[in-house]
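sanity check this record:
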Amino acid sequence: MSLTEVNFDGIVGPSHNYAGLSLGNMASASHKGDPSYPRAAALQGVAKMRGNLARLGVQGFLLPLPRPNSALQSALALDETAAPQLHAAPWSASSMWTANAATVSPAPDTADGKCHLTPANLITMLHRAQEWPDTKRMLEIAFGNRDHFTVHGIAPPTFGDEGAANHMRFCERHGAVGVEVFVYGRPGGRFPARQHEQASRLVARAHGLDPAKCVFIEQNPAAIEAGAFHNDVVAVANERVLFTHAEAFADQQGAYEAIRAAFPALEVVEVSSSAVPLDEAIRTYLFNAQLITKSDGSMALIVPEECRESPLVWSYCEGMMAGNGPIREVVPVDVRQSMANGGGPACLRLRVVCDPETVDSRFLLDEAKADRLEKTIRTTWPKQIDPGDLASPSLAKSVVDARYALLGALQLEQLG
């Protein structure tokens, strides 16, 4: 097999809204009640995918889940006495952030030589805990080739699991044997620690990973308090490189030593707090970026446009590009609608190392398919959703109709 890393981006759903449901997510909270623009959001996502398709030659996607979720609406027994956040939860478009769809262990790392995927249970937040059954069903179709993939059930709900947003992998090249790093939080702080240590260890065992090639690291509680609700808000890895803020881990030097003990080739690019303070790193999502290996072997960092607008962050990026480090290019992209709800370029993608030929081709992007996506979005996605719209039957119908139009355009009606 020819193994490569494929990014599966989440298509922003037609119910994209700002209900502020995510405790500890500063961007989500600060934009609560603002009007949202689902059409613009989805088109920004497609443009990002087109850019990475051009850079990498391969790009995947995952689809919006059914919204509003009538099963959750029924389970919540909604009436006029229910809190507003309960009414909003069944409308959430948060599955767009596919970094939380699953944890992925590529075939070179697993005992049976298959790529393993465990859907995240996302139990900490009601609006996200509803996702996993539909996500699992979609993963079982996209990665349904059982000779090459195994899709597991979720971790037991006692253990909070938020997927690949708290998982990193180090390797000499994507198709080689790697070292997998699981980052977890400790409970008890002002904001919930969403990734539990036992969930990470359970996933590692289920995937058949070599214990000698697994590293478990605690996230810095101060970073969680500052709004880094997932590790990928303060650190990102690619092949041998760890790009990280100096305050990402509870024991920063101990984390480096633990990774290096399992993967001696580790190359750390650490951003000091004096160069970019933690709150500015989180506000601009400098680390919630896609760190990719280009065809010439150099690395590029795909960052939100907000990084270029921050004098501190962009000065650091310019200095990094002018230096001799492994990251030779920084590419800003416009994902403002996602950013306003608390998700940057890294949140919008799930990394899967595989042979693209083994994936259901309906989930792989090409230019013609990107054209179809854009046409469907332009003609069916709501242009704007205001806070009071979520109770509207007409909006519910338009959201449902828009998703069905997308399924038809992609010949994925079985996900209806």
Q: What stands out?
A: The chain has a mean pLDDT of 95.
